[in-house]
Amino acid sequence: MSHELQKPILRWGIIGTGLISSWFVSDMVVPRADATAKHIIQAIGSSSEEKGRAFAQKFGGDATPSIYGSYDAVYADPEVDIVYIGIPHAFHKDACLKAISHRKHVLCEKPFTLNEQEAQEVFDAAKKKGVFVMEAMWTRFMPLTEQLLRLVHQEKRIGDVHRVFCDFGMLMDLDSLPATSRLKDPALGAGTLLDIGVYSLTWGLLGLDEGIASAALTPQVFSAQSISEGIDVTTSIVLHYPQNGRQGILTSSMKAKSDPVFARIEGSKGTVFIEGIAPSLPRRFTVVFNDAAAERQIYDAPPKVGKGFFYEADAVANDIVAGRVENATMPWDETLRVLALMDGIRARGVGQASK
Questions:
Q1: Which of 8, 27, 64, 189 is most exposed, with the fewest beta carbons within 10 Å of its own?
Q2: What's the CA gap between 242 and 258, in Å, rounded?
């Protein structure tokens, strides 16, 4: 990595050419006045060179990346600084380990791996090689999210937090999908929890925890899942913090679409209502105070440029140039904590289904 006008330059190798990779690459090439780093699409790995070229032409803007008909060639490319892993989560661990073995930095889509044990393997490997690794939980890096957490936890605008609700529902026609679909195949980590429920869980933790430093306050977890053909089509989670009485009610479903106002954080002085296209992409939050005489306050996200993946990418670039191997907003321990919670939820769901 080099520098230009004090901005770090990061050369990306893209692993996978599916939907999430198309969003990420499109964001990397969009011009931005507020950019704190420069991103170059250096290489694209796909199942075929033809598919990779079509992907680059459609989403890569003016980028002229090397196109490879395999992922291994991307890991081996000496011009690549970091790989972005956007393939189904069942393959995340192996992809991370291969990238790390070539001393590449890694930004891997959520969920980082299928379970806590796999994630620990990746972090252990990264520690040995001294490379940067982060789970791509992009929502945590959005300016609107940062503003909301500052308002709730630092400024205490709504007083003491009592409860958080969040729902992420997507109406999915599973019957029309082949058994091999990543949304249906249990071997690929299919189900609402790993795919979209992780966002509901994340909003619960963001709202109930004072910050990453207080994450040691591990909540008690109660959950139920509706299992169909080996995957959860609906998941409901209750987080309970015995230390302070806070609770989170967090849900995900393939049976119904969530409301645009997808979450709320309730406090002793008021409530924050969070809205957007989906919990992954908040666009506005409104503070409504218990005091009827107090005027509600509305906070909007910055004018929309791209989708917002560049915020996490900028953070990664600045961490790497500073010599850090993990990020303070999404540190390794937080990835492990979230996966451990989901491991327990899935284990209970399987147990419930077998009764």
A1: 64
A2: 29
- The residues, ordered by sequence, that sit 6+ positions from 125 with a Cβ below 8 Å of its Cβ are 96, 97, 100, 101
- Biggest CA–CA distance in the chain, Å, is 63
**Rounded to 5, what percent of the chain is helix, strand, coil?**
35, 30, 35
CA 192, 134, 171: angle at the middle one, nearest 5?
Answer: 20
Kindly give the confidence (pLDDT) of every residue in the chain, 355 residues in length, as a single tens digit, with 9 standing for 90 and above: 544 458 999 999 999 999 999 999 999 999 999 999 999 999 999 999 999 999 999 999 999 999 999 999 999 999 999 999 999 999 999 999 999 999 999 999 999 999 999 999 999 999 999 999 999 999 999 999 999 999 999 999 999 999 999 999 999 888 888 888 888 898 888 999 999 999 999 999 999 998 776 666 789 999 999 999 899 999 999 999 998 999 999 999 999 999 999 999 999 999 999 999 999 999 999 999 999 999 999 999 999 899 999 999 999 999 999 999 999 999 999 999 999 999 999 999 876 665 5
| Contact by Cβ (8 Å): 256, 272 | no
CA distance 300 to 227: 37
Instruction: Return the bridge partners of 136, or none.
Output: 109
CB atoms under 10 Å from CB of 203, counted, come to: 29
Domains, in order of start, for the chain: 2-136 (3.40.50.720), 143-300 (3.30.360.10)
First-to-last CA distance in the chain?
54
Residues whose CB is less than 8 angstroms from the CB of residue 177 and which lie 6 or more positions away in sequence, other chains included: 183, 184
| 155: helix, strand or coil | coil
